[in-house]
Structures are given as C-alpha cells and as structure tokens.
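Hi F.,

I've been meaning to write this up properly since the lab meeting, where we talked about keeping a consistent format for the predictions we share between groups. The idea is simple: the sequence comes first, exactly as it goes in, then the structure tokens exactly as they come out, then a line or two of notes. No screenshots and no reformatting. I'm using this chain as the first example so we have something concrete to point to.
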Amino acid sequence: MAQIISPRVTDKNKPSEIIAWCMYDWANSAYSTIYITVLVLYLQGAVLKGDAGLTAWGWGIGITTLLSAILSPILGAIADTHASKRGWLCATTMLGAGASALMFFGTPERPWFFVAMFLVANLNYELVQSFYNAFLPEIADDRRMSEVSAWGYGTGYVGGGLMLLIAIVLLNFGESMGLPTEDYFLPRLCLLLMGIWWSVFSLPILLVVRDKSPPRRDRLSLWATARSGLEEVKRTLGDIRRYRMLAIFLIGFLIFNDGVMTVISQASVFAKHKFQMDDAALVPVFLMIQFVALPGAVFLGWIANKIGQKNALHFCLAIWVVVLLSGFFIQEVWQFWVMAAVTALVLGGTQSVSRTIMGLMTPEPRTGEFFGFFNLSGKAFSMLGPIMFTEILKRTESANWAIVSLLVFFIVGWLIVAPLNIARGQREARDGLDAARAG
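Output, unedited:
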C-alpha cells in the first residue's frame, strides 16, 4: 500500500496562486459557453444534418460524460500518488484546447474528423474539472475557501461571457469586417478562438500553482500507479463509513446538481416552447446570465462566510425551489427574464458553496481522488433530469409542467443534505487519514 504522507507546511492564500487558479475558470469557461451555442449549431446545422447530428451530439456528450465520471477518481488517485495534479491538468487542458482549435479544420467534407475532435475536447473538458478543483484546499485555508471558490466561478462566468460576446460579433459582423464566409469560416473561426482562449489563459495556473502534497514514498511506474490508484479508489469505497458526512453530501449533491444542470441545459427549450423565442432572442438572455452570475457567486461566497456553508447551501436550494415554482406560473417574456436573472444569482453560488463544502471535508493529501468522486457525483446520473424534462414536455405538451417537475431533484437532494455536519465531516477526514497512515 502506498504510504500517506502529510502535506508540506506551506503558506496558503497567496494572491498569485489564487489569481492564477481563478483565471483557469476564465480559460475553460470559453468552452462551456461556445459548445452549447456555436458548436452544437455548427455540428447539427452543417457538419451532420438531421438525425445524424442529433445522434452525434447526444451520444457524444453521454459517452464522454460517462467516461469522465469513471476515470476521474482513478486519475485523481494516480495524481495524488505522484503529486502530479498539475501535470494531469496540463495534459488534459492541452488535449482539450488543442482538439477545440483543431475543430476549425472539421469542415462538412470531413465530418468524422470534427466529431472525433469534439469527443476529445469534451472528454478532456470534463476531466480537467477534478484536477482544477483539487487545488482549492491547497491554495486556500478554511477561512478563505468559500471566497476563493466564489471568485473562481464568478471569473469563469465573465470569461465565458466575453468569449460568447466575441463569437456573436464575429458571426453577425464578420462579413462586414472583411472576413471570408464560405465553408462556414466564421463559426469555425469561433471554435479556433475558443481553443486558443482556453490554452492561453490556462498558462497562469500551469506556471504558478504547484502540488503542495509531496509524492508518496514508494514511487511506481505509471502502470503500477494506475493499479494502485484503482485499489485506492476501491479501498475508499470500502471504507466509506469513515467518511459518512462526505458520503451524505455527495449523494445529495448528485441529485440536486442534476436539477441545476437540467435547468441550465433545458432553459432554451422551455423558452422556445413557452414563448416561441428563437436563438436570436435567447442570446441576450445567455449573456445576461453570464454577467449576473459573477456578483451572485461573490455575494453568496461572502454570505457563506457569515452564516456558514451549510446555511448558505440551504439558502441557495430554497431559491431554486421558488424559481421553479414561479416557472409554473409565468406568462410573459419579461417574467422569464426575471426568472433567468434570479437563477443566475444563485447558479454560481450553489456550485461554489458545494465545492467549498467538498474541500472542507477532503483530506489534503488525497484531494485528487476525492475531487474525482466529486466529479463522478456531478456526472453519474446527469441524464435523468433532461430525460424527465423531455418526456413530461412530450406527454403534457406543457413547458410549465416540465419545468416544475424538476422540483423533485432539489427537494430530494435538499432532504438528503439536511443532516450534514461539516465539522464532523472534517473530523472524519482527519480520522480517515490517520487510519490510512497507520495501515
């Protein structure tokens, strides 16, 4: 068994590390905004039209999400053993950003090249999250973790919003700026810029932030480390009783986060069915959400420091319940805008507070593995919400009933995390680490 070693005593809360860490959210959020707008429209409208495009998009997201959910805890355990989170973050970033940029060459005449690059980009986008998140407990102490997590999400929303704004300008005014338009040049240019944006703004974290937990003493080959990582994950799952509070949180997060992700992915479907809003009318809504989410995330990070992380999570989940209930009754487009703005205010806060709670209950030498489980929990059943929303919409032909049906995810997840005791979770993390050392 690989020996668990205490992390080196290092200073936390260094401004250079915090800024570099937040800038990574700015970097990879370019992908998250462009792939749900330009990428999907180009894939389904030009590269593979009709059912082929729908199939490539749906199955592509499903397969890469499932793979990332399976691989994240294992790769996280490997990264912990070698103290190589930074190396894995670099590798997955460059693969994801490189594949994003190479989609520029995926013309309709080379559809399967485009699909292959999309699969590589999406898989690595999913994988980077656990390595990036795992640095949070290493760069911020318990007092600052909520604030730093909030600024990370807020920075990401602004970065993603600016990349989307650039794409909108290029798509609408590129021809008048003298750019070519044949062979879908403008949407392909947006994808190229997305990859460049992701890679360039990732440089601060790759150059500044380092693993602070030392490598474990028994250095192994990559293959042996992979086997050891798998055994470590199996051992953690077998000893899950040592981390009861963490297990409760991850199960609750799995459920309510499915509701959050479904609201994000199905908001445009709701608007189109309820108000017949087209893509041009929805783009300003998406931009508003991106920029409103920044003050929302920062404010809720501040609130969490005042009232505690658990109470802040309760507050966020209560707002989600109110938002979905209001979604059942709204009748005017302006009401949809208000609903979207309120959602934006708690969107980053919910994710930020959840990440902070995870960081507080994670043993520092095993952040890669445990945030791998966090990534797994966030993805494991992510298809259930969209499926339920779609089926209820089809059967009732009512967007109101479809949106209010998502209440079940928030209420059930909320009930599960209700008994959460973060202080006890922190003690369990320390006790579990002591037991691992003794073993």
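Notes:
Confidence is low (pLDDT under 50) at residues 1-9.
The chain has one domain: 15-210+222-438.

If this format works for you, I'll send the rest the same way.

G.
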